[in-house]
Design goal:
10% strand; 5-stranded antiparallel β-sheet; Spore germination protein; elongated; alpha+beta; Spore_Ger; transmembrane helix; single chain; membrane; 17 helices; transmembrane
Length: 544
């Protein structure tokens, strides 16, 4: 087929219009050249649906009148009121048309090329079935769809698509011309690694799924999209590998997401988590978040389900356990020996952040419990403020410094650290308000909290530490034992999408527990976790 631009030569507009429709050169009505192209079944069904008088009910119908369409756009979408709602009216092929799009959300160059192509249409090149002609022959875009539902057309335009209305047609063409404002992928600040990829998720859904697809070139990788929110209509993508994922788990997650009835989720994944998981006032996270495409791809291969939410750079990994939240990508970027070492250092830091301060406080209150050879434990001076209040004030002070660091401009962050370390810490000890040991153990606990891979788990551990300190202040050793036991029982009874939260410790799974304590070599880690109940247990074929 000859390219229409090559046919134009140096002639005038009349010559160009005669040359542009390459299939209009065979005579007759100008369309015999395309008669050999049979309509596909999907196109025929779309056309029948659009033309059916009872295809839509009431307000969902698309009016064949362009004037009525424009009036409705003024009423419902704020045409001529909102500056970003744009309608371009033109006469193409003898038919009055209106192109609706949102300024800033579409590719101007693509729409310009579409309109440029359509301006060369002869009126006699368009049959009475103009919608089909535009769709099948004349709109040079990759993704084009016929739609007769008004609400879907409006939502599509608000999502970045262009909508072409044609006079006399009870449907319109949706042209995918999305061009969202976005940023380049960069390494997530909460999941940095020494070795490994430096790309991370962004706020654009299409970019995020592409980063995972690049790593998983599996034809059985599935991306299902649903819209959540009556007003926001936020795109939510459910990702899984079809021949690995547990079907019951997938159906449970899919049903919970589709059952969400809410005005919108402008805060994206966190609001969706609250609407689906419904953990109430429980501080422990039942969902794992990641901003790294390699981490998400690895969990999909294990049999997890991941949930992408448009406008969020974080991806939910479902289900999760307490021990999953304690693992970091850096451990798998080192040798098995060093990965195991780093994992144990992290465990020790997290345990110290939980129990070091309550245990030290207990030994101060109960000197008879101090083991022989550890008489150095305990402050020489108690300070002007009771120890329990010193711990509480120190916790609040660390939280204030953390929040201040988030809101402090980068050039001032160093100055703020000096103020916190010298003016607050040193002066507070010298004036007798705090004792040195409280500042020391608080610093160790803060380091352990920041070493926790999951930010949400670190915050939950901080609440547990405060509860243990208060229990020790009120009831001494029995308080520490009782509160620790109650928190452990609560963790054991928790479930993440009907999976035990403390697996593989309770219920006990020896192989999985060993894989958690010791980072195994890749070729020795052949089985997927029992927790996920995958369709395929083996990760790789066994060799004799």
């Amino acid at each position: 087929m000859t390219n229409w631009r090559q046919n134009t030569g140096e002639g005038d507009i009349g010559d160009i219009r005669e040359a542009i429709p390459p299939f209009a050169e065979t005579g007759g009505d100008g369309r015999e050249g395309m008669d050999s192209f049979e309509e596909t079944e999907s196109i025929r069904l779309e056309m029948e649906k659009a033309a059916a008088p009872g295809g839509n009910n009431g307000e969902n119908e698309v009016s064949p009148s362009i004037d009525r369409v424009l009036e409705r756009l003024k009423e419902e979408c704020g045409l001529d009121t909102s500056f970003d709602v744009v309608v371009r009216e033109m006469t193409l092929g003898g038919r009055r048309t209106a192109l609706l799009h949102m300024n800033g959300l579409v590719k101007d160059q693509l729409l310009t090329e579409v309109l440029e192509r359509l301006t060369y249409l002869h009126p006699d090149a368009v049959s009475a079935d103009a919608l089909h002609d535009f769709f099948r022959y004349y709109v040079p875009a990759i993704q084009v769809k016929i739609e007769s539902d008004w609400n879907k057309l409006v939502t599509a335009s608000l999502s970045g698509n262009a909508v072409l209305f044609i006079e006399g047609e009870p449907a319109a063409l949706m042209i995918d011309a999305k061009n969202f404002p976005t940023r380049s992928p960069e390494e997530p600040s909460l999941e940095r690694v020494v070795r490994g990829s430096r790309d991370g998720f962004t706020e654009t859904l299409m970019t995020n799924v592409s980063l995972v697809r690049r790593r998983l070139r599996d034809p059985r990788l599935r991306y299902e999209v649903v819209q959540i929110g009556k007003r926001t209509k936020t795109d939510v993508c459910i990702a899984y590998i079809d021949d690995i994922v547990d079907r019951r788990l997938l159906e449970s997650i899919r049903d919970k997401i589709k059952q969400v009835e809410i005005d919108g989720i402008p805060l994206a994944d966190k609001q969706l988590e609250e609407a689906t998981v419904k953990r109430g006032w429980n501080p422990f996270p039942l969902v794992r978040y990641s901003e790294r495409p390699d981490v998400v791809a690895a969990h999909l291969l294990e049999g997890n389900v991941t949930v992408f939410v448009d406008t969020s750079p974080s991806v939910m990994i479902l289900p999760t356990t307490f021990f999953d939240l304690m693992q970091h990508a850096e451990e798998n970027r080192q040798t098995p020996f060093m990965g195991t070492y780093l994992r144990w250092v992290r465990f020790i830091g997290v345990l110290a952040s939980l129990f070091l301060m309550p245990l030290w406080f207990l030994l101060v209150l109960e000197p008879g419990m101090v083991p022989p050879g550890m008489a150095f434990i305990g402050p020489n001076e108690t300070g002007d403020i009771p120890l329990v209040m010193q711990f509480v004030l120190a916790e609040i002070g660390v939280d204030l410094m953390r929040m201040a660091s988030v809101h402090t401009p980068s050039p001032l962050a160093t100055a703020m650290s000096l103020i916190a370390a010298i003016l607050i810490g040193d002066v507070a000890v010298k004036t007798g308000l705090f004792v040195n040991e409280v500042i020391l153990y608080m610093a160790v606990a803060a380091i352990g909290m920041f070493a926790t891979p999951s930010y949400e788990l670190g915050l939950a551990n901080r609440i547990v530490r405060l509860l243990l300190i208060i229990a020790v202040a009120l009831f001494r050793a029995p308080g520490l034992i009782v509160v620790t036991t109650l928190i452990f029982i609560m963790l054991v009874t928790m479930r993440s999408f009907n999976r035990p939260y403390m697996w593989p410790f309770i219920p006990f799974d020896l192989r999985s527990m060993a894989n958690f304590l010791i980072r195994p070599p890749v070729l020795q880690n052949r089985m997927r976790p029992n927790l996920l109940r995958p369709q395929q247990r083996d990760k790789m074929p066994r060799t004799d």
